[in-house]
């Protein structure tokens, strides 16, 4: 369906501007390069969709594929699309689904019938580490101040972030658990989008905020927000803040995104797909895109990736139980 | 003035032939997708994001801005002609607009909406250029408590659309609340009223509900009356465009609509729907032709909401350009386009990317002019749709509604919901329940609930936030005046008229 729409739009566009129509329809042909299908279990525009479209762009510009077709089936954190990918795309060796930590959380919270053990892990591609921030006027100067207030009375420290059970909420739960505050006492204020949470912080409506670092980076630069800590594994260039671990909170979290092949693909297809993704991840074009979008490349492929998904699922399930969401 | 200099520079960026062409392309595309119920500007821009790899940033933002403004124009066309809102911000337009079209004044309704959109869009864009820093400060002062109080005010004012019987109107409103509750509760992550269906976890799309209740319900009703009455095709009455009386009745609603729409659009949780409700209620209160509301269609009820939704579209750009805050789906996707260019949208955007931002603002002015030029001549074409005999026209509406709904997320479940709501709309029409309050309940109910619970979470269960915050108190006071004011006024009038009998000796 999307293809038809893209086609229609390209045609409309062509009427106005020469050369535009070729954009979607005639990808540069490379000798012998395969055609792939990308399944995005989310509506156009979000993180998974951008991952899929950036992959398509980089793979084509690196002449690793001759073209790709992107299908979006959005809804409920990916749990609407997942069963479709499992049932209808079974055995299609040239296909990939974009997914990530958010889907792991949604599967658990929605008690979905299908899960990620039913698809074939290909590679973890990127991660976004999270940031703990406070408004510029806040009395909290360090992560320790924040933790002290949280320990004193968690109900007096409202924290804004993304939707309930999402990566921001999970990180807040993990922080509380590590410092010994019961997760059920937390005052977490979920917002639908990053923009709304951000405005609650800028308007001084909440005590602190947790979200992807990219959501806050410009406000931090402008001095409207103070960065207390980041959830990365190590200090980041150009970011003047400790990791949570350095700040004495033993938590590390990447909101990771990766790709999976459908169930029932041959070993040869799986190996070929891993090789393709590895070549893409090594390219300069991919590195540039990651830099522009605040994505940290954290490539992990095949069996290592499968093991990681299993471990992360267990960790997320435990914390969602603590938060009363699973 | 410094701003004027920037703006002049912006126009020099936007006025190159290539960029004008992008603007024309964007506005045309935007008008087209605005007409279709399933395709919104957010989706369209998301699908066009790959062009950011090919063209200069100025060109792609001019294209996107054209699509954004164009969709706001296009959405009203189907609302008025077919009672099938293309965008959620044009649902209110259908109320009076479609009534006008049925009584032969479709051309005037389309004209007042196009010109009103132009006037309000231009005022709103001027607001973006000159008032952005002031407005954004005001907008950020709105926290959950203030939003909740704003919702209370909106609830009081929407009594204007409840229809003649409050019991029936309230029944519809509460039905809307229930439909609005369907899906995952944002505050706790728990599913409500989903009956174990994954497809319902994200709730019922308000466009599907509006198309189902208005268009499908109406079609079924017409089909059921087919042999009961005559085939009603109302010829065009009067001039194709607006008469001078209609101009006189339109200009004030345009200005009021713009004044309501722009600041609310600039609020991070304001949206485009609430200002249209508020504008409609105010116009109904102030109109000298109250008898036309809900019967033959009052032009004020089209002019005001249409102006409000276009001004709010401009308002949305204020937090986006000054703070990098995306407050609507479209703004969020435009911001991700900034990132494809390695530009990080944020509070420093205006200083670091002045060319781009001012070029964008200038192109919004141009887009508005192009849109009004594009849309006015089309009116003559559009109104011919109304000359199609009823059976064919309604069959066409049904096909259009079905295809559009399927286009939203290619989900067959959406189609089932569409027809269930269509059947409900038919029954409501048959038994004289108004359908508009259902949609209002669907939009306002969950918003009010979310903001209320957020406010209570932040205050740790302390109710005083609603009256201790000055802004919130002001809004609640306004709501209270709106609720009891008319009664007191009626009482005072009553006393005054009877006054002389009770005041002996008065000359």
TrEMBL record, chain A:
Q: Which UniProt keywords apply?
A: Signal
Coiled coil located at which positions? none
CDD domains, alphabetized: PBP2_Bug_TTT
Against Pfam families, the record matches this protein to:
TctC
**The keyword Signal appears for this protein:** yes
> Which domain of life, per UniProt?
Bacteria
**InterPro entries, alphabetically?**
BUG, Bug_dom1, TAT_signal
Q: Which residues form the signal peptide?
A: 1-30
The record's family statement is: Belongs to the UPF0065 (bug) family.
Q: What is this protein called?
A: C4-dicarboxylate ABC transporter substrate-binding protein
TrEMBL record, chain B:
InterPro entries noted in UniProt: DUF112_TM (IPR002823)
The protein's matches in Pfam families, at most eight in alphabetical order, are given as: TctA
Span-the-membrane segments of this chain are 6-25, 32-53, 59-82, 108-132, 138-162, 169-186, 206-223, 316-338, 358-383, 395-421, 471-492
Q: In what residue span(s) does the DUF112 domain sit?
A: 20-440
Keywords associated with the record: Membrane, Transmembrane, Transmembrane helix
Top-rank taxon of the source lineage equals Bacteria
Keyword rRNA processing attached: no
Protein name as catalogued = Tripartite tricarboxylate transporter TctA
Organism, scientific name? Mesorhizobium kowhaii
